Amino acid sequence: MKWPNVELRPYRADMPRDAASWGEGQILSIGGLSNTCSVDLSSLDSFEMLYGLNVQNARIFDLQALYRRSELKHLAVDETIQPVDYTRFPNLEWLHLAWNRNATLPLASSRLRRLALWSYRNPDLKGLPRWEALERLKFVQASIRALDGIEEFPALEELELHSLRNLMHVWPLGRSARLTSVRFEACRQIADIEALSQSRTLQELVMVRCGDLPSLGFISRCPSLRNVRLIKTYVADGDVSPLARLETAVFDAKAHYTHSEAQIQTLIRERGERSGEAR
Fold it and tell me: Which residue, 194, 190, 185, is CA-closest to 225?
């Protein structure tokens, strides 16, 4: 095989929760030397029980060899010379890919549970299949302006949004039936973060390098919220007291804040002690 940076390993605990049912399959990682490096996958035919394939920093040009591995459950590809038909992998559960509008994505009824999309070039999520089994969704460097369509994934529990510079409207998250965790990173234009108060299921909120939030008043109206982390994300009105009702709160210090992180942690601990005494 003339592949640079090749690694072959068995599936372990970092695989999906039901990985044990996959038997003794293996995952193959192929790393190129640059984004212009192309890899020939014809040698994949020599592997048995290959349930995962990662092709990073390289381009795939031999799609027929890829399609012959229809048993794949995990597939991560940076770039392909031609658009991929992902419906050719009926067992696929994990998919990581760079967006190509000409690609054929897995069917809504597929087994897909985890999806990571780089460079998605649509203003919302309405054009994506309504994946019935999707539990975890991640976007990186996407052109999304609003999260319309997120409510169409009935099993979605975790959402990550990284470097979405145009994202302004997140209110559809309040209509997501099972969403428990949201992470925003480098999403500085969000205009309606208070709309998260419409969520009955959200338990964890992480915001990293997301600029200034007008206030944290919405936290008091999120009935299931337990954990909040605000890293290099600041509260304009300075009132961080709503964080005291949570189980965990992490945030950076600012001179105009009503409380320090240590003071909030003390309030959380005291509230927990009083609750324990009451029981």
Answer: 194
pLDDT at 17: 39
Which one, of 212, 229, 233, 237, lies nearest residue 264 by Cα? 229
Residues 6+ apart with CB under 8 A from 83: 100, 102, 103, 104
237 vs 241: CA distance, rounded Å:
11
Instruction: Note the pLDDT of residue 80.
Output: 76
Please indicate whether residue 41 or residue 256 has the higher confidence score (pLDDT): 256
Q: Which residues pair with 97 in a beta bridge?
A: 77, 117
Question: Helix, strand or coil for residue 272?
Answer: helix
Q: What b/e sequence results for 87-102 when a residue is b if at least 16 CB atoms lie within 10 Å of its CB, and e otherwise?
A: ebbeebbbbbbbbbee
Q: Which residue has the tokens 């929760």?
A: 17
- Tell me the C-alpha distance between 29 and 22, whole Å: 18
Which residue from 119, 89, 121 is spatially nearest to 105, judged by alpha carbons?
89
Q: pLDDT (tens digit, 9 = 90+) per residue, 43-92?
A: 788 777 788 988 877 777 778 989 999 999 999 988 777 899 999 999 99
| Structure token digits, residue 169 | 């409207």
Output the pTM of the full model: 0.89
Query: Which residues of 214-277 form beta strands (DSSP E)?
Result: 227-235, 248-251
